[in-house]
Design a protein that fits this description.
Blueprint lengths: L2 E5 L2 E3 L5 E8 L7 E7 L6 E6 L6 E3 L7 E6 L4 E6 L8 E8 L2 H6 L5 E4 L3 E5 L2
Parallel strand pairs: 2-11
Antiparallel strand pairs: 1-3, 3-8, 4-5, 4-9, 5-6, 7-8, 9-10, 9-11
Length: 126
């Protein structure tokens, strides 16, 4: 079974940091574009950050640029999202996913991605 297992979510105060991890199971991460997506209550899912399988190219939605960093460790078959200077509007369930095109994957809100995790909740609140 091809899937991701996310971890690292939780409650953090505004201005704080969290690092999300996503371990791939049943497939090798090297060959896929990967990304992080989020869905807040009452809102559509959005692509937060995605990474190319071919080089170091990355995509970030404007609202997280300069605050979030996506990375992958192919040896550990794991994807990370470092989130700094968190804001209440970052509160959402965060999902990782894999696909073939990192830009279209993120800009489509994940409709182009086809391997998903179950999500981890991030709550930013004082």
């Amino acid at each position: 079974q091809l899937r991701f297992v996310e971890s690292g979510g939780g409650l953090v105060q505004p201005g704080g940091s969290l690092r999300l991890s996503c371990a791939a199971s049943g497939f090798t991460l090297d060959y896929y574009a990967i990304g992080w997506f989020r869905q807040a209550p009452g809102k559509e899912r959005e692509g937060v950050s995605c990474s190319s399988s071919l080089d170091a190219s990355t995509y970030y939605v404007d609202s997280v640029k300069g605050r979030f960093t996506i990375s992958r460790d192919n040896a550990k078959n794991t994807v990370y999202l470092q989130m700094d200077n968190l804001k209440p509007e970052d509160t959402a369930v965060y999902y990782c996913a894999a696909g073939t095109d990192y830009v279209r994957g993120c800009q489509s809100g994940g409709t182009e991605m086809f391997i998903w995790g179950k999500g981890t909740l991030v709550t930013v609140s004082s």
